[in-house]
């Protein structure tokens, strides 16, 4: 079975599989001995260097996944298949008569229901074969982007809002800052992508690529860190404005009461103002991050990979995201990839609905606590 796998998969896929787990204990199939010794002696040695060889069941599963893959010679969409179920059978029969399906015969074909959106689709990496392609790598890339975006935008945005509302005196300087924040909230996302490309990817490449910290996984600054900070800059004005509105909604009587009891301004803000404003701040933050998840243009400019099968392992990794994966699949002429794009769009919509629902639930919960 290993020989069948060796004949059927590319050398790159074979090397990746062997680095995950070896096929034999005493010899290599896809890697040379010199390369294997070199990668196993590095600081980031793959799991295949220490793990035992694959058993027969594991190899059989790989053969079934990589080799024994049924070809989809025709696909019918959901609505027409319900309204006109016989139309698909007529189309397939006409395809065999015209030679559209090549050497396949009607005896080799089987009509079956295929749900493109499934658990396997969510757990599988991207592939050039639509039957086994999935969005696991894109989901993990989007998760890393969300974490970095929140880690950058929330502290900076909430801190700026607290300063402007609670500490800064109204003057020409603060008016200019406030005007710029309002204007930045309406700047097209592609402008932020150009900013990320010029500053984060090129100027700050030693930092965003990880080379300054001894990380050698990325060749340039086109990493998930650059993309996450770019999306953080995109959402920052919205976070600041929503936090400002939440802070302004707190009655001034609470501020006066805190000052009357001898508390400093910061003690009043920390103990009285922020707990009451927290539901509004949290809601605005989640909604702004939900907007950032669906952005495509900034990620394309910053350098998101259109096809990648390796899951991101850290902020200095190459990455892709759900919007990029959807955009890539819609550009393919094969109808199967367009179905995959539709399934990935459903996954993205479910993620956005989950975030919006979380914003409502958390706002209601913390509002009751504040009361």
Helix count equals: 17
* Helicity level: 55-70%
**Global shape:** globular
CATH class of the largest domain, named Mainly Alpha
Record field, number of beta strands: 0
Return Rg in Å.
Answer: 27 Å
Can you tell me the CATH topology of the largest domain? Answer: MetI-like fold
Proportion of residues in β-strands: under 5%
H and E string: HHHHHHHHHHHHHHHHH
Give the total of domains: 3
Quickly give the structural class: mainly alpha
CATH superfamily membership of the largest domain: MetI-like
Distance between the termini: 66 Å
**What is the CATH architecture annotation of the largest domain?**
Orthogonal Bundle
| Main sheet overview | none
Mean pLDDT: 83
Extract low-pLDDT stretches.
none
Account of the 3D structure:
The chain contains 17 helices and no strands. It is mostly helical. The chain has three domains: 65 residues, no CATH class; 37 residues, no CATH class; 235 residues, MetI-like (MetI-like fold, Orthogonal Bundle). Helix 14 packs antiparallel against helix 17 and helix 16 runs antiparallel to helix 17. The protein is globular and about 85 Å long. The relative contact order is 0.10.
TL;DR of this structure?
By secondary structure, the protein is mostly helical. It has 17 helices and no strands.
Q: What are the defining features of this structure?
A:
371 residues; mainly alpha; MetI-like fold; 3 domains
């Amino acid at each position: 079975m290993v020989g069948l796998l060796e004949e059927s998969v590319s050398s790159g896929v074979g090397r990746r599989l062997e680095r995950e787990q070896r096929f034999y204990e005493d010899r290599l199939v896809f890697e040379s001995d010199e390369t294997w010794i070199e990668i196993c002696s590095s600081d980031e040695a793959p799991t295949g260097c220490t793990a035992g060889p694959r058993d027969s069941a594991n190899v059989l599963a790989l053969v079934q996944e990589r080799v024994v893959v049924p070809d989809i010679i025709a696909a019918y969409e959901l609505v027409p298949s319900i309204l006109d179920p016989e139309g698909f059978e007529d189309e397939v029969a006409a395809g065999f008569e015209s030679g559209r399906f090549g050497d396949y015969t009607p005896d080799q074909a089987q009509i079956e229901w295929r749900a493109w959106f499934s658990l396997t689709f969510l757990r599988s990496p991207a592939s050039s074969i639509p039957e086994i392609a999935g969005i696991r790598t894109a989901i993990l890339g989007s998760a890393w982007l969300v974490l970095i975006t929140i880690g950058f935008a929330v502290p900076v945005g909430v801190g700026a809002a607290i300063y402007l509302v609670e500490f800064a005196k109204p003057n020409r300087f603060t008016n200019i800052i406030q005007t710029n924040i309002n204007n930045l909230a309406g700047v097209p996302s592609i402008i932020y992508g150009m900013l990320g490309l010029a500053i984060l990817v090129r100027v700050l490449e030693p930092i965003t690529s990880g080379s300054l910290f001894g990380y050698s996984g990325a060749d340039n600054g086109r990493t998930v860190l650059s993309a996450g900070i770019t999306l953080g800059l995109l959402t920052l004005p919205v976070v600041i404005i929503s936090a400002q509105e939440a802070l302004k909604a707190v009655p001034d009587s609470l501020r006066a009461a805190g000052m009357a009891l001898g508390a400093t301004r910061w003690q009043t803000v920390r103990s009285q103002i922020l707990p009451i404003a927290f539901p509004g701040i949290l809601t605005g933050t989640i909604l702004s991050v939900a907007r950032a998840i669906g952005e495509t243009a900034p990620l394309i400019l910053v350098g998101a990979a259109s096809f990648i099968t390796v899951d991101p392992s850290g902020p200095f990794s190459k990455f892709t995201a759900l919007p990029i994966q959807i955009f890539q699949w819609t550009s393919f002429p094969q109808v199967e990839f367009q179905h995959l794009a539709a399934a990935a769009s459903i996954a993205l919509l479910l993620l956005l609905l989950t975030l919006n629902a979380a914003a409502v639930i958390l706002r209601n919960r913390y509002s009751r606590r504040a009361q």
